[in-house]
Every structure is written in structure tokens, then in C-alpha cells.
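Handout, section 4.2: multi-component inputs.
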Amino acid sequence: MTTEAVLIVAAALFGIGVYGALSQQSFVMLMMGLELMINGAILALVVLWARSAGGNPQGQMLGVVFMTVMAVEMTIGFTLITGVYRVRRADITEKLRRLKG
Amino acid sequence: MIAGPIVDVAFWLFAIGSVVAGYRVFRTDSMVRAAFYLLASFTGVGGILVLLGAEFLGMVLILMMAGEMLVMAIVMVMFMMNPAGLNPMVMVHQNRIAAGAGIVAFVALAGVGLVGQFPDRPAPEPAAATAQLGTELLGDSMLVFQTAGVALLSTMIGAIAIAGRRGRYGVAEDGSVEPPLQPDEERAR
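Output:
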């Protein structure tokens, strides 16, 4: 388990996430792409934490912040899905040509 | 940070499982299955985090994602068409550009990972790392921790305000109605 190997795995997760976020039509699937990107970011963060600074705990704090960002992003995403569905009955991005209600 | 051949085998199992599950998320017909593939992918990453000596983060990641994926599955069953995947389904746009962007992102980031110079000062024994994080969370970094908590609270309040049937600007089914500029206008209506 070298640093490089873990970073490549993180890059693969991020790349798959980019593909998903750009290609999926369904809102929820799009959010899954974003999640995978953050997943890769957390992995890269933690391996660099584990291999540097002798494991100073402040590095892990950044991981906690990442997870908060992930939770906030998901909450806002689900909220907007609910709101858009109520007004437009839209479940895919193609149904939203304009945002004004 | 622990080392040894068993750790290496476990790492590659987690890594390959995580990447394959991440890929399967966008290749399965059923959206509910996609949610559980994503959970599998996160579980693999959580396992690697534990191997790297960040047990707390790894376990919190798995725990949080388990809850989140269930919420995701419920949202999909509620709102999305064909959530059960009874019919084959491809719902993509600009597939080639997206795949190209994904490959470019992977190659660029992997290149950075291979070419870059990284420090090599491994973390201390896992138990110590978790204890240190606990002290850090409620010690020097308490402001960060509290800020994250307040941010989550305000997100919850905001989510309820936006998603409520009566949104900020009136009943959701009517679409949004802009608020009147003058207080008198409201009374006149």
C-alpha cells in the first residue's frame, strides 16, 4: 500500500465521479457522481495525512470538514429535487429549460 | 498506519471493490441498486481509511453513507421514474464528452500522484491517532467542529424552509410568487 497506489485509486474514483456528474440525466444519479468525487478527495486527503506530519490530528479535522460539506451538499440537493418536482414534475435535467418557477 | 502483506491484500481488495462498485453505479438499470453500489464504494474507501490509521474517519464515513444511501433510495422511489430497474434504462446525455472528461481527470490526477514528491513520515499507531483526534476535536479545533455543527443546523433549517409545501413565496404547486415590494400591495390583493 504505497502512497502512489492510494492516490491512483482516489484519482479513479474522482474520474468516475466526473463522468457520472456530467453524463447522468437523473438528478439523484448526478448527485451520486458528486459524491464519488468527494469520496476520492477524502481518500487522497487521508493518505497524504497518514504519510505526512507524523499523523498530526489537524489533518483529520479537514476530513471532518469534507464530510460536513458532503452532508450539506446532499441535503441541499434533495431539497432542490423536492422543490423542482413539486413545481415542474421534473426528475431529469432535460426537463428544466429554465429555472424561474 | 499499519503495514504488512495482509494489509496490502486488504488494501487491493478494498481498492478494486471500491472502484468497480463506483463504476457499476452508472451502469446498473436500477437506481436503488445504484445507491447500494455507491454505498459499497464508500465502504471500500472507509476500509482503506481504517488501514491508513484514520479509523474514526473511516467508520464515520461508512456510518454516514449507510444512512445517506437509504435516504437516497427513498428519494428515488418517491420521485424518479423507473426506480426499480424493471426495464433496461440508459439515461445519459453527452456521454462521450463526459467519458472523455472523466478519463482526462483520472489521467491528470494519477499523473500527479505518480510524479509528485510526497513526504514519508507515517502516522503513529492507530489507537493514538484516534485519541489525538478526539482531543483535537474538543480542544484546539473546537471552533472548526462547532462551525461544522452550526452549518449543518442551518442547512437543515434551510432545507425545511425550501422543501416545505408552503415554500418561502407561497404554495409550491402555484409556482413561486415574487414577494410584493410594498407592504400595502399585499393587503390590496
